[in-house]
Design a protein that fits this description.
By secondary structure, the chain is mainly α. The chain is 77% helix and 1% strand. The chain has a two-stranded antiparallel sheet. It starts with a helix and ends in a 9-residue tail after the last strand.
C-alpha cells in the first residue's frame, strides 16, 4: 500500500509540473503582451487577443521547454537517465511504420468520424473553432510547436513519466484509462477532450506493446502534422469521401494495433513489459 501511494504521488507530481508550467507561462504571456503593446502605442482587448492567438505556438513552446527542463533536472538530481525514465527505447522499423499506419487510422476513423457519426453539431462546431484558433499561429510556430515539440512533450509527460508510475501499482488497462482521460481533459472542450482521450488510448497501447515512447511520438507528430497542414492550407476533403475514409481508417487502426510490437528472443511479437527504473 505504501508503494501504491508513493507511485501515485510521483505520477501526480509529474503531472502537476506539466499543469503548473502551462498556467504560469500562459499567465506570463498575458502580462507581457499588454506591456509590449502599451510600449508600442497600446491596443484594445481585441488586438491583444489576436496577438495572443497568433503566438499560442510560441507560448506552448516555452512551456514545453520549462517542463522538459524540470523533468531533466529531477532525473539528474535522482541520478537517473532521462531517456530511461521517459522510456525512449529503440524499436524496429516495423513498429515505426505501424505507428504511422495507426496515425493514418486515427485520422481517418476519429477525425473524419466527427463528420459521419451522429454527434451534436454544436459540439463539432466548438471543436472546429478550437482548431481555427491554432490556424492563427504563424507557420513556423505551427510546424515547430504544434506539430513537433508539443507531441513530444505530451508523450513524455503522459505516456512516459505519468503512465510508467501508474502502471507499477495498478493494472495496465486502468493505468491506460486514467492517463488517457486526464490527457483528454487537458484539451478543454468536451468533444476535443473525448477525441484526445481516445487518441491517448491508442498511443498508450503502442507504448505497452513496444515498451517504448517512440511509436507514440511518431504517431502523435504525424497526427498533429496532418491537422496543421489542413489548418494552414485550408484544404477541405470532399464530403463524399468521408465514409470511405472512416472505414479505411478503422481497418488501418486495427491492423496497426494487432501487429505492432517488438520480437522476443523466440521470435514472437508480443507486448513488452513497461516497468521502468525506480525514481
Amino acid at each position: 500500500m505504501k508503494d501504491f501511494f508513493k507511485e501515485i504521488g510521483k505520477a501526480l507530481g509529474y503531472f502537476l509540473v506539466y499543469l503548473i508550467a502551462q498556467v504560469v507561462v500562459g499567465l506570463a504571456a498575458g502580462l507581457i503582451i499588454p506591456i509590449y503593446a502599451g510600449a508600442n502605442g497600446g491596443a484594445d482587448a481585441t488586438v491583444l487577443n489576436d496577438i495572443l492567438a497568433r503566438n499560442i505556438g510560441l507560448i506552448n513552446l516555452v512551456a514545453a521547454v520549462v517542463v522538459l527542463t524540470t523533468y531533466f533536472i529531477i532525473t539528474k538530481v535522482r541520478k537517473h537517465k532521462f531517456i530511461e525514465e521517459a522510456s525512449v527505447k529503440k524499436v524496429s522499423a516495423k513498429s515505426v511504420f505501424l505507428s504511422l499506419v495507426a496515425a493514418a487510422g486515427c485520422i481517418g476513423f476519429l477525425s473524419f468520424g466527427l463528420e459521419v457519426f451522429p454527434i451534436p453539431e454544436s459540439l463539432v462546431e466548438g471543436m472546429k473553432e478550437g482548431n481555427a484558433q491554432l490556424a492563427n499561429a504563424s507557420v513556423w510556430q505551427a510546424i515547430v510547436s504544434t506539430s513537433i515539440v508539443v507531441p513530444i512533450l505530451e508523450e513524455v509527460v503522459f505516456r512516459g513519466f505519468v503512465f510508467s508510475r501508474l502502471n507499477r501499482v495498478m493494472s495496465t488497462w486502468v493505468a491506460i484509462l486514467i492517463t488517457s482521460i486526464v490527457f483528454g481533459l487537458c484539451h478543454g472542450q468536451i468533444l476535443w477532450a473525448a477525441w484526445a482521450a481516445l487518441l491517448g488510448v491508442v498511443m498508450n497501447i503502442l507504448r505497452v506493446k513496444t515498451g517504448s515512447l517512440i511509436p507514440g511520438i511518431v504517431m502523435h507528430i504525424a497526427n498533429n502534422s496532418f491537422s496543421t497542414f489542413l489548418n494552414l492550407s485550408g484544404y477541405e476533403v470532399p464530403k463524399n469521401m468521408y465514409i470511405p475514409i472512416v472505414i479505411l481508417g478503422a481497418i488501418l487502426l486495427v491492423i496497426a494495433l494487432v501487429f505492432i510490437g517488438e520480437k522476443t528472443e523466440d521470435n514472437r511479437v508480443t507486448e513488452v513489459e513497461v516497468i521502468s527504473a525506480n525514481v
